[in-house]
């Protein structure tokens, strides 16, 4: 009986303690409510949408990006990218790895190119972005807006006014100068991947300059089609040493890489690789003696807007089934509409030979390069 009475007394004491704790909590809540201002006690709860709108409204346009680094990337990242670019320039055509950072756009839509561009941009630079020849595509407009908002740089659609040009799948028609840098977005960095999916084996081939598999691939292409029928990503030899993927530019643009005055930077964010073609560097497309390299041919057609026959043309099909051709480079096409006799080297003093096929000779009016 004594044990039962002891347990009963313990339960009574625990119940009294719980009542005391509850009473103290209630007293604390009442005291906290009395301490609150009447305005806060009577203020209705705001919805999540109203709260977000009010927070966004507190920021002005000038200081809305005050929490970001200049040109979005932190200084350590930009320093690493610039060092990789310097190494890529020192070894033309060699793929240099770097730590690709997450960017506010999906991988495969120019993350490598925008990292290279933002690492090079300065306050006094002018930036141009094109997507397959167009300045007004959604991807080009978004990248241009990101650079303008975070780096506070001027943007342009005129190729001749730009210091740094980021492009996807095209090289501008107008001749680039030694004061300009062209950054190309690259989806696939290794040209040997189309003949062997092993990156480790392909790296050994690059180290030993063993490109026999690519030559076999070109030979099989000739056997099947009668000519080398590679529309984009045409394999090129840089400085007689490294086989390079020039990104998915058309064959029309490949000759523009050879001994150009400008610097070409190829950046792949998804594969975290950078490679480059320095100015005045030999870039030779692979070909056979009896099957020479040829560019796209547009016999008997011209641009419907400016009448050009020496630019890369895009076939456009209308709703009624009719077909017409237009210049792929929208900026240069607009200039040609203003001046049909405008040359692609109009903005420089000397005449440039070999900037792609069909460059006009200002003296004779003929075109250079084999387009047939």
TrEMBL record:
EC numbers on record: 4.7.1.1
MF terms (GO), sorted A to Z: 4 iron, 4 sulfur cluster binding; alpha-D-ribose 1-methylphosphonate 5-phosphate C-P-lyase activity
Enzyme class: lyase
Region ranges (Disordered): 1-47, 338-372
One annotated GO biological process: organic phosphonate catabolic process
Keywords: Lyase
Record InterPro entries: PhnJ
Xref: Pfam families: PhnJ
UniProt keyword Membrane, yes or no: no
Extent of Basic and acidic residues compositional bias: 27-47, 341-350
Parts forming coiled coils: none
Protein name: Alpha-D-ribose 1-methylphosphonate 5-phosphate C-P lyase
Lineage per the UniProt record: Archaea, Methanobacteriati, Methanobacteriota, Stenosarchaea group, Halobacteria
